[in-house]
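Forum: Protein Structure Q&A
Topic: Joint prediction for protein chains with partners

I've read a bunch of threads here and the consensus seems to be that you should model interacting components together rather than docking separate models afterwards. I'd like to see that in practice. Below is the full input, 769 residues plus whatever partners are listed. Could one of the regulars post the assembled result?
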Amino acid sequence: MTIEKFSYDNRMVRNFAIATIVWGIVGMLVGLIASLQIPFPGLNIGEYLTFGRVRPVHTNAIIFAFVGNGMFMGVYYSLQRLCKARMYSDLLSKLHFWGWQLIIVAAAATLITGHTTGKEYAELEWPIDILIAVVWVIFGINMFGTIFKRRERHLYVGIWFYIATVVTVAVLHIVNSIEIPVSILKSYPVYAGVQDALVQWWYGHNAVAFFLTTPYLGLMYYFVPKAANRPIYSYRLSIIHFWALIFLYIWAGPHHLLYTSLPDWAQSLGVVFSIMLLAPSWGGMINGLLTLRGAWDKVREDVVLKFMVVAITAYGMATFEGPMLSLKSVNAISHFTDWTIAHVHIGGLGWNGMLTFGILYWLIPRIFQTKLFSKKLASFHFWIATLGILFYAIPMYWAGFTQVLMWKEFTPEGVLRYPNFLETVTQIVPMYKLRSLGGAMYLSGALVMVYNLVKTMKMGTLLADEPTEAAALEPMTVEPAGHWHRWIERRPVQFLLLTTVMILIGGLVEMIPTFLIKSNIPTIASVKPYTPLELQGRDLYIREGCYTCHSQMIRPFRYETERYGEYSKAGEFIYDHPFQWGSKRTGPDLQREGGKYPNVWHYHHMMDPRTMSPGSIMPPYEFLTENDLDTSSTPAKIRAMITLGVPYPKGYDQIANQDLMKQAEEITANLKKDGAGIKSTKELIALIAYLQRLGTDIKNEPASTPPVTN
Amino acid sequence: MFRDHLENITGISIFPMFSLIVFFLFFTFLLVYLYKADKNELIEISKLPLNQPDSPEKS
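Posted by a regular:
Agreed with the consensus. Here's the joint model:
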């Protein structure tokens, strides 16, 4: 047996750690700003700092920049040590690190300037999508290269989670990002309406599962035993945890679309698998917490363990709440309200945030060969972060319940008690303020951590290449007797393939029927493609992130149809590339907005929402009356739509702008008649055209045939 | 309504059956394996994160 000398790469771990800290602060700060923009609409400044653009920056920064870099930090540290090998290639590590930071900067710049696909957590436009795929593959190669040259035959359970993450995120990202470019920063997804919704939430849910959960579970399986200095409670349980989790998670996406126009069978499938998910999730939580059995006295003293215990507990709470929210009756209450916001922040602030902090406090002193600058400050961080989570979540639960109860309340005469949506918003504004306080507490704790860790780094010196040694892995001449799982555990490629098969089954079973339906579903004859002006207006709706506060999905409940009108039908969305159903109603649903108000109402409402709706918290969109609509893009957009199967007449792309101008002139004339002077070339005209079209098509259905339902 | 559309897809009935069988077999295999697995080896693997020294935190 030969002993080989080599070194671990700690420099990359340090780089990812610094990126985690920096982007974490940025992401939380942007989140705080976004949260303040709701109760204080005056903070929506100009064109670039409106809530609709700031909110995607927050979500993308937290998910892909903060948690992303945190994941890479932990993987680069633990993978090397579990494989007893240096990362496969220093060059790939470097490309991975800088490529990822480039993606983050490009993402922030494009989102704030309104370049978005309009699909939540997949907002980035196609050139960045390609860059993400490339960098992700680099990460995958670097990881598998390390696994191949490992000096430890067994692959520890943490590595399985990393492998599942690499494979699944790649699949999800590619499938959900298939889009037709219109220009360098504009594209349309190939899917429309119901199908787009299914693909998006298959992606969206599994972004949570395989970006925020599985890699962090891998980290939990490494760093919790490390910090507690004892092995994981049950390795058997961790095997069940892993396979059951990745098998079940991939089916659960449709629970984001309960009571929508998604086929009922797909909804039910999503519900069933979501409920089953409780078992492996709690298995994992129990496994993490019980690792500390007999060591609870340590938790009292060791701040790292404190962070980890809260993180695992938050994981348990969020994964209990998730299946509960997937029950149709509970979802009917929670969906579109702040309950969802509370739920994701238990996961984000609690699970991802606290585990990241714990790992940072454990890891930074070690790679800098020193001790933590101040345990007191770390302890302060722990308490203010924990309190911050409570101050964040409780007001959001309260707001969610309050609002939904107001939405649903009828008077004894059988009419809505709060017919004006705004009443249900102003009622919960104090809760929004309290939530911001919770967020500010959490952020201030993170700032204390920055100070503490910078001081720690300055006290020590980075051990950039940590010397170590291990026995070379002898080639196995005789296969030792064992079970199939032993066999698979030693073979990363086969493991990769099995994992891929597992995650593909769920996705395929859900998607194939939904896509085949296209040729079977009777389309609603009166639903027609958008006019060129409406299409341009729709792209403005997407650009401004209107979907972050407004849904376009009326569920078949009496309190919804009373308030908004006829419930939404699958056939109404067939030309919607992308779908804009939304997931949150900070403002009212807009599916049947068309014709509800005169053009001039929209004009004044966009100039300053508070003139038309006193107390409204919507940002002002005055700049839409100043910006000229870019009509040069119309032909390319029409051509892209024709490619996607939208039935515009042949050669329409060349004459579309004539129709566009004609419709714009009509709206301008109508506005002028009502005393609102605006040029027909302005962006606002297109947006009004789109809003006035919304949901009106089925009203043109001949009265004799009942509207087609799903 | 959707059941009608689904019924028009050739061979659609195989989907739920296929899912159920895969699901059942998968978890049966997993449980059987775990039942038969060698406990000592599992304990050994679970010690993997711990059996090499990290540069210890100075105190």
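The beta strands of chain A are 3-9, 179-183, 186-189, 465-471.
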